[in-house]
Amino acid sequence: xxxxxxxxxxxxxxxxxxxxxxxxxxxxxxxxxxxxxxxxxxxxxxxxxxxxxxxxxxxxxxxxxxxxxxxxxxxxxxxxxxxxxxxxxxxxxxxxxxxxxxxxxxxxxxxxxxxxxxxxxxxxxxxxxxxxxxxxxxxxxxxxxxxxxxxxxxxxxxxxxxxxxxxxxxxxxxxxxxxxxxxxxxxxxxxxxxxxxxxxxxxxxxxxxxxxxxxxxxxxxxxxxxxxxxxxxxxxxxxxxxxxxxxxxxxxxxxxxxxxxxxxxxxxxxxxxxxxxxxxxxxxxxxxxxxxxxxxxxxxxxxxxxxxxxxxxxxxxxxxxxxxxxxxxxxxxxxxxxxxxxxxxxxxxxxxxxxxxxxxxxxxxxxxxxxxxxxxxxxxxxxxxxxxxxxxxx
Length: 394
What we know:
By secondary structure, the protein is of the alpha/beta class. The protein has two domains: 3-142, Rossmann fold (3-Layer(aba) Sandwich); 164-390, 4-Layer Sandwich (Phosphatase 2c, domain 1), CATH 3.60.40.10. Helix content is 39%, strand content 24%. The chain is built from twelve helices and 15 strands. The chain has a five-stranded parallel sheet with strand order 2-1-3-4-5, sandwiched between helices. Strand 9 and strand 10 (273-279) form a beta hairpin. Helix 4 runs parallel beside helix 5 (72-81) and helix 8 (215-233) packs antiparallel against helix 9. The longest helix is centred in the middle third of the chain and has 45 residues, at 119-163. The N and C termini lie far apart (75 Å).
């Protein structure tokens, strides 16, 4: 048991017998000297209530029943009104006075002692009650800490959501392309991210990523990864140069062997050409005409693990009307109640039936399809989707 918490508990003895105070101080002189017990004395209920206000450290009350001005049973009623779960009362009554003892217990007494008091029994009762108070204080302390953590997590969630683009369409003045994206975290904060930014008048950078692990650490690593990719990408260098540079930075800064899968691409909004690097991420799909096809991999490993790894880019050509659909493995690795994976085949079938749908519907209804499939199961991973439709010059 936490000795410091126990030592912070004062014991108030409420009894009108004047000889009781010196007797208790004599019997427990060693415990008082060692700081194990700290006694406070009152002679009736009213005085006890006053001292309770003056000394909030009082956690254990040993109270007689028959006292002037305010008896022990009335004191119990007043104490119950305080609704203090860590304040415990042990009632003291004459041997055989079961009616008053039962009344006291019904009014919230933690335990009782009978007169004449056995000091050995009193010490056992005090220690047992102090143990209970200590456990309750620890429980309340842990509860407060949990509330604080939950508040911090909520703040972290709000910050994380704030750094992800959330205004759609993001570039309403641009008619050559349209974008829509969504991220649903499995926990309070997530490790997935997406981003997009105009590098210049002709080039649109876009990225989707999935950090290993969950929780606050993953969320921090996610924020760092997203910031590095955006800042580096905005310099206008190629996708492979961007990934090589960011990978070296993440390898130097990575903790606990964390890594991130990333698909980073640059769309030339004039020609429809996409230059990209796939760093260990799920390959996106292109919805073109009546076909759904995967974007070829680039043999790139995850970022943050191998500092000397060299990334190479590839290119793919979009034609007006094509839609590029990017996702994280929270989609394909969603489970249903039969422990079946949503999988790539279901995703491809879904996309095949949504070839001509508006970009916002493709994303939102994809999430609905995954959610419906995994109904009854807790979300095990973040679900993130990013879709870009190439329209071309009109």
